[in-house]
Amino acid sequence: MKFDMHCHVKEGSIDSKVALCDYIRQLKEQGFAGMLVTDHDSYDGFRKWKYELKYDDVFSGFDVIKGIEYDTRDAGHMIIVMPDNLKLRILEVRGLPIEVLIDVIHKHGGIIGPAHPCGEKYLSIMNTGRFRKDDSIIEKFDFVEAFNACEGSVSNEKAQALAEKYGKVQFGGSDSHKSACVGTAYTELDVPVHTAADLIKAVKERRISGCGGTLYRHTTRQKLGRLYSVPIHAFYFFNKSACLVKWKKRRRLSNQET
What is the pTM assigned to this prediction? Predict the structure, then answer.
């Protein structure tokens, strides 16, 4: 089975231009069996599937798995998959430190791995102070995104080397925010996967046989060139500010759910 393990849809990610229904149609046409929806700090894209599209005959034979791309306080972006029907509202509130986040995910039976681990500063764990302080944090992950279609070849080569060094399952994801990027990356699974529980089991049993794809050449980074550092630093300050603003909500949910 072929899945795209890093997908952003406009129902859940403010920076995505692709509606979930269009995303599914494109992947089906390209021979994909399913997708992992990984919107930024939100499950709204998956809710669109669960409550509106799931039982539409047009989408039969295609599986949409609930995931999320979480903004940590100190270690960049993380891809997370939790068991079906488990609701942890804290995962929709950015800002948990990585150590706490990993404990929460594993305590509730989920899996976690770094998105684009060797990519941009602040967004990717290898380029954060947290990793430089203690690189053994990688050992606690269940998988590593070893191929991301929106990263460069050097970044992906380093990510693959990181996964191999620590013996981690390797994911491939397009990280699509635009229609032209959909389906540019894949993950091959050796067993049928129809639910989040199936995917979690497949990762734990190491039934992921490979990943890869083609690089997407029209990213914002490539268009802006050296000026891309401006939005990256802007994101850093936005993320830090948002983490501070939401600390009370995060603390309240932590007490209730963790």
Answer: 0.92
